Amino acid sequence: MRVELIDIHKHFGPVRANDGISLTFEPGRIYALLGENGAGKSTLMKVLSGYQAPTSGTIKLDNKPVVFTSPIDALRCGIGMLYQDPADFPPLHVVENHLLAYNDHFTLEFAVARDTLREYASRFGFSIDPQAYVDSLTLGERQQMELLRLLALGADLLILDEPTTGISAEQKEILFATMRRLAHEEQKTIVLVSHKLEEVQELCDEVAVLRRGKLVGGRDLPCPTAELVRLMFGEELSRTERQASEVGNTVLSVRDATFGSYRLTVEHVNLELREGEVLGLAGLEGSGQRELLQACAGLLPLHRGQVWLDGAPLQGKRSPFSWLPWLALLAFMALSLRAIIQRLTGQIGTLEMVGGVIVSALVGGTIWLIGGILITWTSESAYHTFQKRGGAYVPAGRLEEGLVPGLTLTEHMALVTPNPRFMVDWDRARASISERIERYNVVGRPDSRVEELSGGNQQRAMLALLQSPLRLALLEHPTRGLDVTSANWIWELFQKRRQEGTAIMFMSADLDELLERSDRIAVFSGGVMSRVLHASEASVEELGHLIGGQQA
Amino acid sequence: MTTTTNRILRFVWPVVPALLAVLVVTLLLILVSDNPPRVTYEALWTGSFGTPERTFSTLAFWVPLLLCATGLLVTYTAGLWNIGVEGQMIMGSIAASAIALRVALPNPGLPGWIIVPLELMAAAAGGALWAALAAMLKTRGGVHEIFGGVALNSLAIIATNYLISGPWQPPEGGTFRGTVPFPARALLPLLGETRFSPLSLALALLALGLVVLTLRGTTWGLRLKALGKNLRSAFLLGVSSEREAVTAMMFCGALAGLAGAVRVLSWFDSLRQSISGGIGFLAILIVLLAAQRPLWTLIIALIFSALLTGGTVVQLRTQLHSAISGIIQGMLVLTTLLFGDYRRLFRWSPGTEAREVPHD
Question: Does a structural domain hold residue B35?
Fold first, then answer.
């Protein structure tokens, strides 16, 4: 199927996300869509996959103009999109998930679906158990499952949005082999949205580059990478050199710590982190890095061992009233005991004894309630103590964990201001956030609500909210969704913090970033932490082996 | 749509569901009543604002409603469904009654300016503690505040019944379901022969102003707002979710307790069985309808209070049951829920992108 995009415009208010893009996708070829953050790649693909309607422009399939009203509509015409975050149902079985979109009979045809799944899976060398629960699969397997669904529904053009993020090296190989086979043997069209140049070079036949909503050029691949970079950014980038930094006193020390959730337990972790040092955590998603960061932030309770911050154990503030619930219990027991004794000695009747016990329960309950209120007011969670002692934790979920949708940037700034006054000082908060917006290149105004920002700008906003000075920064994917220039800028800002003595521990899926930015690297595989490597002596290959669970 | 049209529409739109409700009710009246609908509406007006006495009656009913709704503005902002506001109000009236019966009655020498503030403080404390119980059940026990609130509402009613028929039963006993009337110096200063106390209205308006200021300008208000919109993010940004939830509930409980005090100290003169009159639940409805906007809360509370007060006169003049006010209220709620959001009504296209922004 030949797909033509003709003069596609997509405007969001004053923002021109797509500004007159014309592209043609021929069958049997693999295309790459390149561009930095906010170049309009995702928007264009959402238009093509029926997720959103273009402001103007035409889509033609085999020279017939079409209008899609929904992704299902587009899929019926043969256009399927594999989203970066899988669009599936974690509580269902794989078969059920498959049937949900596939089944058009009144009853569910499990046997047929299982057979289809097996047949497609074996054709492409995927290994998916149809009876497994979706949430027990790895991201790569969920991607394979979604791919099978799209193919089974007859997709002729497949759009893959950043498909290699978070999947293993083997899964990536299988995925790429499948793509090649689908394109070159089955005459399907593949469109890969990515900003990983090596992958684009490795897989694709042709590339189209977007910049600021416009198509700025196309090349047949392979071609020199430097040329692509020039097209994407308008200039050639030089990666920043590793800057050595003075290493000072120990900031964080993890001693024989065991922690985890119901899914994964990480055992016997020992770590030291000094002022100005950067420790990178490598590993597939869900291997224990996030748990380590959360344990160090006081968000995940330790089963064993201790985390020390600046020479003192990290723990929440105990309330000076924590004895009150015990007093409540004591009062209840003493008073009811008195009533019982009075009954036994014959001073009161049975009814009065019951009344006495009820009264003592009321007295005890009241003390418990007041004690509970006082404890709630005076105690502090381990995480908030961690924050007060100069720690910061930046989670991966931007609108789920890091920012509050519905609040403006200024309100966020006011929220994180330490030692706030009773009344919010809006002028100070606004001045402060304006300065940070500028320093972190956030595209947004102090009055912008965070959900109005694009993903990359939300990421920058989260980092912009960090306090200064910081003792310890724990970062999950600090530059995810940022293009190379922005990522470099963010790391330059971290470099300044390092010189001020901030210790940094971060996790990332990008091995180059880990090697380039860390002093030392720890690799996680299935809840086990490797020995700590020196970044200057480590290689991508070595990390890859460790991530796969092989000791190098 | 341009932004100016949008702004005008947003301001004017709330009238539309109200008109629709009136239309439907009028139709109903034509169908069921022998009198023309105008008679009913006139009766409703006379009953609520027709004479000074009726007006003061409407205002007297408005005050506790407003106090409860004001408190609920705080808990809604924090994302808490404080269904227990009814029970908190009852606990407030019990606490106020306790002072009136146990302190004011045995000490005839105590003047009103000591007793009344004492009663009000006790009422606020009683409501706040009852609310704190719901909050502690939530934060420590994992019981959702809706279920805790419902249970505590029942307990509060049981406590009232126990007190009226037990320790606080009037000496003559028998037919009168309530405590002995409180002495005049234990009541709020009333306006003439009415049940309306200007002091209580001043108190309610002061509370509303305070809450508006709190939610707009204070750090605490900002924290509650963050908490209500995303608890996890708010916690990670440094808001102690437990502490703020307990405090917000107690704040609301204190205002509900004051509402309870207003009921026993001005509307009635003693603790009665049905002391709350469903005001707590009505307040929940009002805040929902007003979409947490303080000015609309004020207005809708007044309308509801007028409808309920006017219902009795409707029953006297026409042969309709006073439940007609309930029907009008219900119709208002229904039309507002169905047609209240004009943006949803005007969005015909199946697209979902109306509020979407480009990512990456």
Answer: no
Check whether residue A76 and residue A205 sit in a common domain: yes
Please give the distance of CA A200 from its chain centroid, rounded to a whole number. Answer: 23
Among partner residues B217, B229, B238, which is closest to A416 by beta-carbon distance?
B238
Is A462's pLDDT higher than 50? yes
Tokens of A5: 């995009």
Token representation of residue A273: 């982190």
- CB within 8 Å: A415 and B140: no
Domain count, chain B: 1
Q: Is residue A400 part of a domain?
A: no
Task: Report the alpha-carbon distance of residue B145 to residue B123 in Å, rounded.
Answer: 21
Would you say residue B331 lies in a domain? no
Q: Is B351 on the interface with A (CB under 8 A)?
A: yes
**Least confident segment among A162-171, A294-303, B162-171, B301-310:** A162-171
Residue A106 lies in a domain: yes
Chain B CB contacts of A369 under 8 Å are 129, 132-133, 136
In this prediction the ipTM stands at 0.86
Question: Based on the domain organization, do A474 and A459 belong to the same domain?
Answer: no
Same domain, A496 and A428: no
Domain boundary, last residue among A217, A233, A249: A233
Show contacts of B317-325: CB within 8 Å, 24+ apart. B317/B39, B317/B43, B317/B46, B318/B33, B318/B34, B318/B35, B318/B39, B318/B40, B318/B43, B319/B33, B319/B34, B320/B29, B320/B32, B320/B33, B320/B40, B324/B25, B324/B40, B324/B44, B325/B44
Asked, for residue A375, whether it belongs to a domain, the answer is no
pLDDT by residue (tens digit) across B96-125?
Answer: 999 999 999 999 889 989 999 999 999 999
